[in-house]
Amino acid sequence: MIIKDQPVAMQAKIYMYDLNNSARENGFKADEGWEVNRATLEEKNELEKRYQLTVSAKVLPEVLAELFVMVKSQLILAKKVITDGKRPEMNLVASSDQQYLVAYNPNRLKT
Known about the structure:
Elements: H1 8-25, E1 35-39, H2 41-50, E2 54-58, H3 61-79, E3 100-104
Antiparallel strand pairs: 1-3, 2-3
Helix pairs in contact: 1-3
């Protein structure tokens, strides 16, 4: 999926919609969730090889950090439970070679 020419808030909604659909279609259990990372093409390919289900979007590098923070925040709110009360690491500076937002389920490794 390539996300462009949309405000960042709309891009986040589209990405979250895709994550929710994928979770429903693949029968996520209540204790399963998504991990979201910013990635280069090589890192994206590695995650896709390692995990059964990934949802990735190619994003303009200048909006990747902001989109990452919005999606990560929405996932935390959706989970409704933050066990230790700490905010997750959300570095706002993306490297110029990171172009992808990649979500994966850490519980579903390929065998």
